[in-house]
Amino acid sequence: MSKNPRKSSKAAPELQLGRAVEWPTSPEAAQLDKVPNPQKGTDYTVRFTAPEFTSLCPITGQPDFAHLMIDYVPGQWLVESKALKLYLASFRNHGAFHEDCTVAIGKRIADTIKPKWLRIGGYWYPRGGIPIDVFWQTGRLPKGVWVPEQGVAPYRGRG
């Protein structure tokens, strides 16, 4: 048996931060980066707000618009914000229902960084007269962590 352990042939991808990268062509092709949490011994909330999220209706191909709110309590890792921006932008030409987009984004982030807790709220603008709001979360919020309300008012129409 060799004294030198084999190195994994699967190298970690290089971070997108600090360099020019191509826009991903699909959510599957998008690289979602993580960085070490410098406060991993402290429970706190991180919030990302994406008020101009877009995707396509899988049936008509028309654009759908949402205001996404992503809150999480990090463990060992943080989501790198440039990579998140590129990942969310990869949905612009992606056809999927509101529910699928919202839950898939939450699951991808959770799978990537393994947070202590995560929730995503997808507040979708009406198409066909019906707004659809989609909510997903992992587990239970750690005790004592402050998470502000998402603050996105339900759709009320005109006036």
How does this model look, in words?
There is one protein chain. With about 160 residues, this protein is an alpha+beta fold. It has a domain at about 35-130: GTP Cyclohydrolase I, domain 2 (2-Layer Sandwich), CATH 3.30.1130.10. The chain has helices spanning about 80-90, 100-115, and strands at about 35, 45-55, 65-75, 75-80, 115-125, 135-140. The strands form two sheets. The chain has a four-stranded antiparallel sheet with strand order 2-3-5-6, with helices on one face. Strands 1-4 form a two-stranded antiparallel ribbon. The longest helix has 16 residues, at about 100-115. InterPro entries: GTP-CH-I_C/QueF, NADPH_dep_7-cyano-7-deazaG_red, QueF, QueF_type1.
Offer a few descriptive terms.
single chain; 159 residues; alpha+beta; GTP Cyclohydrolase I, domain 2; four-stranded antiparallel sheet; two-stranded antiparallel sheet; 2 helices; disordered N terminus
The gross shape turns out to be globular
H/E element sequence: EEEEHHEE
Level of helix content? 10-25%
Mean pLDDT, as a whole number? 90
**Main beta sheet:** 4 strands, antiparallel
For the biggest β-sheet, the strand order reads 2-3-5-6
> What's the CATH class label of the domain at 35-131?
Alpha Beta
Number of E strands = 6
Structure classification: alpha+beta
Distance between the termini: 76 Å
The CATH topology of the domain at 35-131 is what? Answer: GTP Cyclohydrolase I, domain 2
Oligomer: single chain
Radius of gyration from CA coordinates: 18 Å
Can you say what the CATH homologous superfamily of the domain at 35-131 is?
GTP cyclohydrolase I, C-terminal domain/NADPH-dependent 7-cyano-7-deazaguanine reductase, N-terminal domain
As residue ranges, the low-confidence spans are 1-9
The number of distinct helices, counting runs of at least 4 residues, comes to 2
How much of the residues is beta strand, in percent?
A: 25-35%
**What would CATH call the architecture of the domain at 35-131?**
2-Layer Sandwich
